[in-house]
């Protein structure tokens, strides 16, 4: 069984070493992927100087090209984002905007470089909105060529108007853990299928 690599992009608004619930859940996804012979790494995006824009390189010290190179070397992308005002975090939206550039990047057969890569989403927050955020992020990732596995999202939301975050909560709900395990199993399975039998050129 061929080994796979995953990249978790954590879209917390907080720089390291501040605690991050998004990073915690993202690392839990990576740990679950390890059960399926997937290794990888976690990048907290705000720790790097990722510029606004919709190109592969915005110049002037832009850190996105280095992150993009790691992404292109993996088979699974995990976006881990908090919910703010019912929306994906602004950092998540910057990542999606940078991925828009992939629509202009193709291989020698005219296929997007993201074809054959699987995307999953992990969402945390202490307000409702996890399904909405997951839907927004999945639609954007699918638009730029990623393939979405069955049950490819996991999330945790705390009680509305309270201040307990995922990294501060007590025993985690079985539902979140089960969703994370299913996400990992399905993402790894799909990534292997696509590696063995890539998408055909459409023209």
Automatic annotation (TrEMBL):
GO molecular function terms noted in the UniProt entry: oxidoreductase activity
Start and end residues of each NADPH-dependent FMN reductase-like domain: 5-160
Gene3D superfamilies: 3.40.50.360
Name of the protein in question: Flavodoxin
Protein species of origin: Dactylosporangium siamense
Lineage of the organism: Bacteria, Bacillati, Actinomycetota, Actinomycetes, Micromonosporales
